[in-house]
Fold this sequence. Notes:
The structure holds four protein chains of four kinds. Chain B has one domain: ABC transporter involved in vitamin B12 uptake, BtuC. Chain B is built from 17 helices and four strands. Chain B has helices at 4-7, 10-15, 17-37, 40-66, 74-88, 101-123, 128-148, 150-153, 179-202, 204-214, 216-221, 226-252, 262-275, 281-297, 304-318, 322-327, 334-337, and strands spanning 159-160, 166-169, 172-175, 254-255. In chain B, helix 4 (40-66) packs parallel to helix 9, helix 5 runs parallel beside helix 7 (128-148) and helix 5 packs across helix 12 (226-252). Chain C has two domains: 1-79 and 166-253, P-loop containing nucleotide triphosphate hydrolases (Rossmann fold); 88-164, no CATH class. Chain C has nine helices and ten strands. In chain C, the strands form two sheets. In chain C, strands 6-7-8-3-9-10 form a six-stranded mixed β-sheet, with helices on both faces. A four-stranded antiparallel β-sheet of chain C has the order 2-1-4-5, with helices on one face. In chain C, helix 3 crosses helix 4 (121-133) and helix 4 crosses helix 5. Chain C is globular, with a radius of gyration of 19 Å. Chain D is α/β, with parallel strands linked by helices. Chains in contact: A-B, A-D, B-C, B-D, C-D. At the B-D interface, helix 3, helix 4, helix 7, helix 14 and helix 16 of B face helix 1, helix 3 and helix 4 of D.
Amino acid sequence: MENFIIQLLNGLVASMLLFIMAAGLSLIFGQMNVINLAHGAFYLLGGYIGLSVVRRFDNFWLALIIAPLIVGGLGVIIEYLFLRRLYGTHRHLDQVLFTFGLALVASDLIQWNWGAYVESVAPPTLLAGHIPVFSLTFPIYRLSLIGFGLLLALALWLFLERTRLGAIVRAGVSDAQMVSGLGINIHLVFAGIFALGTALAALAGVVGSPIRPLYPGLDFEILILTLVVVVVGGLGSLQGAFFGSLLIGMADTFGKAYLPEFSLFLIFAVMAVVLLIRPAGLFGLKENGQ
Amino acid sequence: MTSLTEQMGLSTWLGQKRVKLGLIIMAVILALIYPYVSSLYFLSLAIEVFIFAIFAMSLDLLLGYTGLASFGHAAFLGLGGYILGYISSRSDLALNLTSNILITLPLVIIGTALIAFIIGFFALRTSGIYFLMVTLAFAQMLFSIAIRWSGITGGSDGLAGVARPVIGLGSFSYEFSSRPSFYYLVLFFFLLSWWLLRRIVNSPFGWTLRGIRENEQRMKALGYNTFRFKMAAFVIAGTFAGLSGMLLVQFFRHAAPGNLYWTMSGQVIVMLIVGGTGTLIGPILGAMVIRLFPLFVSSYTERWELLLGLLFILFVLFAPKGIMGFLGVKPSTLLTQEKRPSG
Amino acid sequence: MSLLTVTNLTKHFGGLAALASVSMTVEVGERRAIIGPNGAGKSTFFNLIAGELLPTSGQVQLEGQDITKLPVNERANLGLGHTFQRNNLFLGLTTFENVYLAVQHHQGITKNIFKPAGQFSQVTAQTTEILQRVGLLEQQHEVVSTLAYGQQRALEVALALATEPKVLLLDEPTAGMSPAETTEMAQLIENLPHSLTMMIVEHDMDVVFSLANKITVLHYGQKISNGTPAQVRADPIVQEIYLGAGYNENVSK
Amino acid sequence: MSTKKSYYFITRRDFIKGAGVMGAGLAASPLLSACGAGGGASSGPVKIGILLPYSDIYAVLGESITAGIEMYLDEVKNEAGGRKIELIKENTEMTPPIAQQKATKLVEQDKVDFVAGVVSSGVLMGTRDYFHDNKKLLICANAGANAISRGAKTPYIWRASFSNWQPNWPLGTWAYENVAKEAFISVPDYGAGHNMADAFANSFEAAGGTVLGKQLTPFPQMGDPAPFIGDIQNAEPPMVFCFYSGGAAVTFVKAYGEFGLSGNIPLVCAGFTVEEDVLPAQGDAALGVHSGLHWALQLDNAENKKFTAAYKDKTTKDANVFALQGYDTGRVIVEMLNSVQGDTSDVDKMVEAMGGISFDSPRGPFKMDAKSQNPEQHIYVRQVQDVGGELHNVVLEDLGAFADPSDNSLG
């Protein structure tokens, strides 16, 4: 029972980290219909920038702000210089391929700059250490990560449901033309959303770095898991990202704990079952391709 | 943008049926005499290019002709390799049954077709971006099975010691032990695949696939059960990819999980985009460029992955039709394939 | 037995009833027009019959067979051909190839996987014949995306015709056309064999009254009138909707 | 109906025949191949192919080994057996097909006299047939797959590194006597993980110990190890044996500390888990960890003092076991070339010379064992300690010299 509770907490930690990634990916897709295959690279980049900030200023909280800002800014530049050239109904594949090329290039540039050594970031002193959970122990940082993920989910939900900008974004999910018709600068919205999405990836990279050390190749490892989450949850939906993350995070954790032989296999099996029942994902807005 | 060949007045020349036939015959003759003029090393490069050309052409049937962007095509390359490896590796884990291609080839084809059918059943329920991600996820699932099921697959070390292919019937038996002999085996399968795929894409079935690519909703309105055609395309593509995987493992004599990793799926997409999709010849050119590029560059710079990524981005942004687009050869139409009826 | 029977067909979008319990029958050889102001539910009605949408309740029967839940392609194979309100063609292929795709399915050769498509002479011949009928033979080698709008509209009809349907459903065939193009299209439809049963949604009243021998009027998702052109024209409710409510006849032209 | 979600991925594709370009490309390639010089010569420089990963997660290993080889060759002024030595490096990445492509290039295009390197066991096993069939000598600088000293042995592959069995079998006995009688085992589910766990368990159980449980974690991507740590917490073993390397080593050891297991449940591991390349990232979580390996940064002998100082001089980083293996690979190359007097034309002569190599290495006495084609070497028990403000491995005990048993009888 104790072990079960510990694993439940572990599952929540994994889920929240996935959620921060999936929310960004899903947001970008919902607004721009682009699956950003460089999302993992932005995660890794965020983590490494965080690492550099922590080394330089010895301040984790600063890293939490700087890394998303830099990566978000980079997102704006990429959207403005390249992605914008590829909008249009017939170029969805080109957009995806572009982000794939971007992921290849980014992955190599990151290794060039930060090297191939495994790097890890210490959690902030405030959150270091561990506390007892029944007779076992659990790290404080991981517990606070659960809280952070839930708060972020709430904030994103409020942003989408309660603000004018959020309303525009939600409208964009269903009809980009209509938003343009309302006299809103859709390009500005696109750039903003792409920046927000990439900044979320960088944020995940920073908060993840104390528990998932950084190394070349982590970008694609994280990307694949995130893709599974959004396929399961349904693209373009915040609820989908949230519950998809929970499902996959739990499946991964409990799979590792109780069915280790099937651990990698299990999350894909979950995905296959969901697809069989609901091809558009649990919270998919519409039957895709219709 | 006017293409290079257009400026030089070459495209009309290239468009003539006689010229095309002549070029094909020339290429085949060159390929046939190649082992006599090539060093052993360049022979092995040609073998690799032909194997990857089969792989790339098979994806072209999906991506180029049917409009199905699979990001997990390496699943079938790896699968074909593992089936072959399991049958004919000398490793303790494997069956070590036979390396007679008259037995191994049908088993590889049946195995990959079966798995393609199962994956297709799930993946083809989706389309567009979902299809891309679902195929990627399924390939990763096979990868994780290959890694985890180490009692059969050798885990991350793979199955080493794969026996050289043999062709045997009754008392007759020939082992493709020398590299030139293996080259001719691969060349045979390459030409066969190209011919078969060409026939397929030009048949009514192939035109149906193009119709689905252009407008699936309309195809349904015309009465087509598009799911069945997509499934057929998916299985055929998977089978040819499995064939290329079989040859790859016979060549390297090692079935490894890297063959079904997403990087392999990514690489074949790069081949297609660089070469030009929906052309069959384009993927062959792409396979050549992508397999040879790192070889020449990586010896001089450690940043070749960066260069490859940049090259790919440039093609996506500025030359989405790939090398074939540069050559400016126009898409052929149904009527110009055969004689045009007057009228 | 009627060719097409629609019973209490209803479609809700969210809480909104786009179509409320509409029933009607279409007999062989009939040319039935569906008219009504914008938002009357014509397109919904049409898409429910074609199978592009599934109804909330009600039934559609073709020759007595219940087809309410059949997918689009199976309805097409039973003889229900339809065109789209917005051109829905194979834009990257040539005109000839567009029609060929329809004909090859109808002639059942699509399972053929090795013989070059151009060698099926019966298919190419029928393709040519249909292109001639709709006046697109000269454009047969042109890529469809380069055709003029009116030509694309004609091709839209050609594709549906090529499947040799028992019922041809035409969704606003003259939508967005110039007066000259409209006349040509009306002529093209008029010249189709009279044995072919047709259902047509159309805004242009001149076209409607010149083509149709039966008219059904929808308003706010309900059938409010049904009959011959003369009967419908005389129906006071119809007059109220089209005239009294401030609409002129060519509402959305 | 929204058209937004319908994807017309490919709208129009060219359709082309004409294969001329390809023929032309292939025809041109033999001309390029004419540049290669004759191989197996006995004059001019000795050309040695270096087959190592220089990108992604094993890049650090590849770079360390290269630095080690070059360091030793510099010491002998790049000359052995009367001939100059020339290195040709190729990046294997991590995947066997690419590695084999590169091996083919080195042997057939660059006509190297022999090859050195190879980090991963997968690559070693994947290229094994190629070296065997082509009768080319490969001097392995890392990959420890037991099989290459046993069932898959070929005269043409020799190791200057270790076999996976070597550090762990002596460690099992030591752990039973010095740490605890019961152990929980955690290793990644792949060849090396199995090799290491089997060797440890074999001697541990032979000494009377009990293995409480064994957890096989996914490889190469372990992901978050928290669930595995949870399992260990739950089993409450008096000792844990593990083997991880690279990213997984940092992830695992850090999580071990994070959950408060460090210091409470002694961690005994194969030396790579807490080797100098990963120690800085692991931090205090690694403090006190015991491990068995054939070398340690703080190993006290003259050769090692010279080596570690020179390495730090050259690279500004502390040496690690991979650099040491590179250094010894360089030494083995030179010893062999001296022994055949620079005549690389006869591979059998080189193979014969390999069997007789022995010297004083920074790791202690190094004696090539002709039976396992792998060095007989001392295994040390090390402990991670704070050495002047930095974490390093300090030698606790020398367990003596061991050679791979050449069969699977001892795990």
